[in-house]
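quick one, 199 residues, struct below
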Amino acid sequence: MSGSDQLAFGYEARDMPRSTERRMTSIWYEILPVTLEAEQVVVLYRCEDDEAQPWLLPHQTGTHPNDAILAHLERCFGDLFEPEASIVHSTSWRYCQRTERVILTYLVVMPQRAWSYKRIASDRIMARRLGKVEQARGDHLHPPEKIEVNHVLAHALDHLAMLRNSDERINEVLESGWIEVLETRIPKPAGYVEVEEIN
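---
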């Protein structure tokens, strides 16, 4: 998935404006939990959060990103989180110049059997149905100027569709209901810059 804002790779401190010389780039994890409800993709979010915003978790020195995210999911969902039946997979990364962050996106696919609207509400977790979403696209040198959470979700689902066709372990865990859902997605590899097909 392409990043939001311009790249700043290769710049040295003397090339940067004085106001940014002392800023350190930080790493954050973007967590996008999804499941199926009535054969449709739903995005899960906490009642206290804005449903349009993903969960963000700062990098913890000395801790692998997957371990940090698994611990975070266990804290948030409790026994509703089933690691053995869930998929936690990094699908993209992007750079945000405004916040000076490198953001790693993790799609979390949770089994639908653990969910119902009643249980979600009782645990202060809400679900938003995800309609048709598409990726934002840049050009052959630059990422899109603007990326919203639905663009990131579209890329993540496209990547999941690719994994369904190539990753045996993912297929062992992925519920059968996802097969029809992912048939509408175009399989894409993870990456930063996407290349448009040129006729």
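Residues 24-182 form a domain with the Nucleoside Triphosphate Pyrophosphohydrolase fold (CATH 3.90.79).
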